[in-house]
Structure formats: C-alpha cells, structure tokens
Amino acid sequence: MSSTWLLYMAFAAVLVFVGVYCLLTQRNLIKLFIGVEIISKGISLALVATGYVKNSIFTAQALAVTFIVVEVCVVATALAIIINVYRHTKSLDIRKLAKLKG
Amino acid sequence: MTLSIGLLVGLVAFSVAAILVRDILKAAICLAAASLLLGILFFVMKAPYIGAFEISVVAGLITVLFMVTIALTKAEGDVRESKLAAWAFPLFFAVFLIIDVLVMKSLIGKIPTQTTTAEGGSFGEALWKGRTFDLVAQIGVIFAGVFAVLALFRKRSKDE
Q: Which is the most buried residue in A55, A72, A78, B18, by most CB within 10 A?
C-alpha cells in the first residue's frame, strides 16, 4: 500500500517540478500561469491519491473540491490582471513589468 | 495499476508539452488534455465526483478562460522565450527524475502503514457534515473572485 502511495507522490513531485521550472524560465505571463496550473495539478493529485490509499476518499474529494474552487477564482482574477497588464504595456513580457514609472 | 501508470505518464507528458510548446494556444490545449487525463485518473481512483469536477471545471472552464485571454491579448510572437531554457529542460528533468526515484525508493518500507478502515457514509455527508466550514469559505472565495474581476474590468470615469 505504501509503495502505491509513493508512486503517486513521485508523479506529483514531477508535476510540481515541471511547474516550478516553467515559473523560473518562461517570460510570457500566460505561460507562467500555465506553470501555476501544472503545480496545482500535482497538488490535487497528491490530495486525492492520499485519500485513495488511506481509505478516506470522501474527505479527500471534499478537500479537492475546495481546492478547485479556489483555483478557479485565482485563475479568473489572475487572467483579468494579465489582460489589464497587456492593456497598459501592450506586451505580455514579464521583464517589462520590472520597469517602474514615476 | 497499468492503466493508472499510463494515465500518469500521459499527464506528465502533456504538462511538459504545455511548457515546451511555443504557441500559447497549443500550450493551453495541452493543459486541457492533461486535466482530462487527471480527471480520468480520478475516476480510476474511485473518486467520481472530483473526476467530473476536474473535467468540467478545470479542463473546460479554465481552458475557455485561457483562450479568451489569448484572444484578447493577441501577442503570441511578442515575447521571446529563452532557447537555453528549452534545451536545458531534458537535463534538469532527467536529474530530477533520478533524485525522485532514489528518494521514493529509499522511503519504501519506512513509512508506517496505518491500518485504516474504509470511510463510512457518502461523499455528500463528508462534504456537508465534515467540511461545512469549507463550504462557507468557498462561497467567500467565489464572491472575492467575482468582485476582483468586476473591479479589474470596471469602466474608468473621465477624471481618472
């Protein structure tokens, strides 16, 4: 039972790594947010897999539902911010946000 | 178990494709495909509610939000990504995989397996009775998200 859980955790860790690598190396704002989404997939996989292995799948599902609701709200807000940033800077390049004005 | 491993490998493959593909629209589609595979995996794990939620909300709604953003910004060729990052990815990925496998192998047998009995009741009971406070918090988060989007898209007056 423990090895099954470790297998799921290994894949969840890989997903988190891929997301963090995206956050560290990409410059496009939308790409960066895709990285955040990949990290959140790893976390939800870890949550549900733990519930599945530990025989408490209902509680794990309830927690994952909460996680997804929070995720959707964060995505909606962040994409609205990205659209506003694009309207101001006419670019999606994260480096252009480093310039202070005023 | 073979089906689960296949789905997990597909999930990682689509996630990697999402960050390596240059076109943002294709990256969003890869992300949706990864969500779809994760949703199917949840069904395999006997978690149908969260599987349906993942497919409908994450693979559906969030992909639509990404596509709307891409359509509204229209700046795909604008950002030059570092080529070094794409070339170095296989190396870092291989190193991480080796470390990951070694760590997980070393943990086999060291984590105590608790003797747990299967959870009684239903998903509805777990959600409504066990996690009632979470539901209240979810309502708060949804309102916060709605008001944040409204605030970000409000029409500015001429004085501002």
A: B18
pLDDT recorded at residue A95: 82
Hey, what domains does chain A have and what are their CATH numbers? 2-98 (1.10.287.3510)
pLDDT above 70 (res A96): yes
- Tell me which residue in A2, A38, A80 faces B108 most closely, judged by beta carbons: A2
Number of domains forming the structure of chain B: 2
Per-residue pLDDT averaged across B25-48, rounded? 93
Residue range A25-36: average pLDDT?
91
Nearest chain A residue to B80, by CA:
A27
Q: What is the ipTM of this complex?
A: 0.90
Smallest Cβ–Cβ distance between A27 and the set B81, B116, B148 belongs to B81
Q: What is the mean pLDDT of residues A51-78?
A: 90
Q: Cα(B16)–Cα(B33) distance, rounded to whole angstroms?
A: 12
> Are residues B48 and B74 in contact, defined by beta-carbon separation less than 8 angstroms?
no
Residue B83 lies in a domain: no
**Shortest CA distance to A73 belongs to which of B134, B139, B151, B145?**
B145
Is B93 within the bounds of a domain?
A: no
How far, in Å, CA of B109 to CA of B112, rounded?
7
